Amino acid sequence: MAQVRLSGIAKTFGKVTALDAMDLVIDDGELVCLLGPSGSGKSTLLRIIGGFETPSAGAIAIDGVDVTGLPPERRPTAMVFQSHALWSHMTVHGNIAFGLKLRRLPKSEIRDRVERVLDLVGLAGYGGRLPSQLSGGQQQRVALARSLVIEPKILLLDEPFASLDQHLRERLRDEVRDIQQRLGITAVFVTHGQDEALAISDRIVVLADGRMQQVGRPGEIYAEPKTAFVAGFIGAMNMLDGLLADGEIAASGLRLAAEGSGPARLAIRPEDIALSEPADGRAATVRRMIDFGAHVVIDSALADGTHLRIQTDKAIRVAPGERIGIRVDRWTVFTEDGEPRRYRSDTLRSFRDVRYA
Amino acid sequence: MITASHPRAEGGGLSGLLLVALPVALLIWLVLWPVLQAVVGTVYFPGKGFSLSSYAFFFTDAYSLRNLWLTLWVTALTSALRVAVAMPIALYLRFRSGSIAALVQSLALFPLFVPSVLVAYAFIRVLGPNGIVDTVLVALGLPKLPTPYLTPAGPIIGLVWERLPLTLLLLLSGLGRVSIASVDAARDLGAGGLTIFSRIILPRIQSSIIVALAFNVLGLFSAFTLPYLLGPASPEMMGPYMQRTFSDNADPLNATTQAVITFAFCAAFGLVYVRAIARGRRGPA
Ligand SMILES: Nc1ncnc2c1ncn2[C@@H]1O[C@H](COP(=O)(O)OP(=O)(O)OP(=O)(O)O)[C@@H](O)[C@H]1O
Ligand SMILES: [Mg+2]
User: Fold this and answer.
1) Atom 13, ligand 1: residue with shortest CA distance
2) Can you give the pTM of this predicted structure?
3) Is the pLDDT at A173 greater than 50, yes or no?
4) Which of A104, A208, A254, A344 is deepest in the core (most CB within 10 A)?
5) Which pairs from A100-108 meet CB under 8 Å and 24+ separation?
6) Does residue B203 belong to the interface with chain A, where contact is any CB pair within 8 Å?
7) CB A86 to CB B285 under 8 A?
């Protein structure tokens, strides 16, 4: 059992508010990603869980035990840092054994456990090397092994693979997910890569400016963003400034059904747009076509020049300058106050959009 | 196995050679040549031939030996003290931040901008006989301070203070290579402050410490101003001793002999320094 409960956590550095009013429960065996732009407070939150920072307000409990005032070494947590955290004067074995030696375990047990964990991270036989003789990916595997070997209840990872290339990053994050599931430990993973968060988490916590924007399963956050920020941050999204009036939202020459009045933001995913015959309020001009192989992305311009990204079938071919008609299948309208409203073209078929059915 | 390539083996080419040609020429002209002259001048006497008598005198003269011995231990103690005093400050500055750290830093670097002569007079005013400390003690009805002025402790205190900033900067540059994350990681696994220092930090700043010690030794061995102004009249450190032999006793031969001996000691420490640098470059920090 390892459940983390944060209640009313806030952290200020001088005049900077890094975190504000955080309430969150991380369940046993769950992998939670903290996702947000640079400076949103992800590391600060992780360091508070790990005991490297004390919150200015609020409390943190692990398995019901208040650990707010405890230093890192007295918490059942282990942290994997972004980089440069290995001890370069010790071998891989020395790095991993360090925590076990501090616990005064017998030599033979230390050797066994180090070997087992090296095996777990796919580095069997590398114990005698120095960190400088390893690749960046291998180094981070050692860092992971060093944290895992002390059998923490909660594993904390602060952008552990940020300095690696994308390919390796993807492989390692899948490995982390795999190991976490196999060991059944709780994990908190900080990242500013949304694809990373979507790929491995049970739940995602989206942070912006030190505040929790939304907590939810990856699919949920992608499909039903609660704020315009989340909508824009997770996945590709066209965000347009528009005006609500007469049952419509008008944004950059685009007109879609929506209730309410006053200024609002219109959010449309590129894959929720299909091509059709040009019509009033449903047209754009092609700027560029990007062929990704599996699909095609069209960068187009609306009436006032605003970019509109369209993701469509790989068979589609359009030329720059070409005028295209668009059909929007789903859209979300965010107003300053109140819940976002989501629309689908098929629910509206009865009145306006019937032509594009 | 991966074997590290030797940077020296690659060579810098002709342009690299030209780049170092000027400093090397200056070194030969301004340093090595006078040294050679001094050495030759103490062992070869035109018309009389070779003689090591001035060295024989130095190493049999009790007073000279006492001076050499004093210089050696004052140097050793002072450089050890400098590192010992600078280390906690450096650790503090490296791993803490904020306004207090900024204040500590400026205080610690302050001696860098104070000439030795001022240090000496400030020292005398504060710690000397009838100085501020004495006056306060007397006013409080307490016994007078056994003043370090004109004892070996005098120059040691002055010298430690005077060159503290340089030692501090050297240690800081070494600590700069110890990432905060690597210290946090050790803390996370349960290491206490002492363990972190001895097992994580110390091994990685070893070469910086050696460099700091060697640097200090080089400067201290021939230090003049502070030992002259604050130290005992007898025995005296090599710096004042040479100066007195040369000008007061008008004995250039023995002064030069003392200089050559001093130089030999410095060169030995210089060798340690060079080797430490080479090792720091080759091995991981
Ligand atoms: N030790 C500190 N002293 C002062 N301000 C700090 C400190 N640590 C963090 N902050 C501030 O707190 C805010 C949140 O920082 P934090 O490091 O948690 O962001 P982050 O989400 O991890 O960003 P990144 O993705 O760049 O790592 C930032 O505005 C940062 O400047
Ligand atoms: Mg961070």
Assistant:
1) A18
2) 0.80
3) yes
4) A254
5) A100/A149, A100/A150, A102/B189, A102/B190, A102/B191, A102/B195, A103/A150, A103/B190
6) yes
7) no
Q: Is the dihedral of CA B42, B46, B47, B49 positive or negative?
A: positive
| Among candidate residues A295, A239, A302, A240, the one with its CA nearest the CA of residue A271 | A295
Sorted by where each starts, the structural domains of chain B and their CATH numbers stand as 38-282 (1.10.3720.10)
Residues B124, B230: contact at Cβ < 8 Å? Answer: yes
Confirm if A17 and A46 have CB atoms less than 8 A apart.
Answer: no
Query: Which residues partner with A79 through β-bridges?
Result: A156
Asked if the peptide bond before residue A131 counts as cis, ω within 30 degrees of 0, the response is no
Among partner residues B186, B190, B204, which is closest to A89 by beta-carbon distance?
Answer: B204
- Residue ranges of domains in chain A, CATH in brackets: 4-228 (3.40.50.300), 236-356 (2.40.50.140)
Which chain B residues in 181-200 lie under 8 Å from chain A, judged by CB atoms? 181-182, 184-192, 195, 199-200
**A244 has which bridge partners?**
A249, A262
* Distance separating alpha carbons of residues B285 and B273, to the nearest angstrom: 16
Over the stretch B125-134, which tens digit does the pLDDT of each residue have?
Answer: 887 777 888 8
Contacts of B186 in chain A (CB under 8 A): 87, 98
Q: Show which residues on chain A lie within 8 Å of chain B, measured between beta carbons.
A: 50, 52, 71-73, 77-79, 81-89, 98-99, 102-103, 130-133, 143, 146-147, 150
Task: Give the separation between CA B115 and CA B239, rounded to whole angstroms.
Answer: 17
Q: How far is CA B227 from CA B64, B71, B263, in A?
A: 16, 10, 18
Q: Which among B187, B195, B200 is the nearest to A87, CB-wise? A: B200
Termini Cα distance of chain B: 20
Angstrom distances, CA of residue A335 to CA of A86, A227, A259, B178:
48, 9, 11, 49
At B238, give phi and psi (nearest 5°). -55, -35
Is the Cβ pair B191, A73 closer than 8 Å?
yes
d(CA A26, CA A10): 17
Which amino acid is it at B168? L
B216-245 pLDDT, tens digit each? 888 887 787 778 777 777 788 888 888 888
Question: Which pair of structure tokens corresponds to residue A209?
Answer: 């400016």
Atom of ligand 1 nearest to the CA of A42: 21
> Please, what is the Cα angle at A252 between A246 and A255, to 5 degrees?
35
Task: Tell if the CB–CB gap between B185 and A81 is shorter than 8 Å.
Answer: yes
Distance between Cα B15 and ligand 1 center (Å): 46
Please work out whether the CB of residue A44 comes within 6 Å of at least one atom of ligand 1. yes
For chains A and B, CB pairs below 8 A equal 67
**Nearest residue to B86 via CA among B181, B189, B252, B205:** B205
ipTM (interface pTM) = 0.80
